Amino acid sequence: MKSEVTLYMRPNCGLCGPVIESLEALGIVYRSVDVSLDAGLEIKYGWSVPVVEQGGVVVFEGGMDPLDLPSLIGGP
After folding, report:
1. φ and ψ at 71, to 5 degrees?
2. Are 49 and 56 in contact (CB under 8 A)?
3. Single pTM value for the model
């Protein structure tokens, strides 16, 4: 069984779209969390979104190349 994948993002995030496209192209099922709705998450991830966690471990942060996601995260 694969570890849960979570995408921390916010509305109108220019870097989030390509990450979502990469996750979906890989067939990765993920949970999306809007950090702007939670002050604690906004503080934790605010400047780093999009952030992808797998099994509670950050594997991707904003500024990284979404094309690297296949090597950072397992397939479906």
Report:
1. -85, -15
2. no
3. 0.89
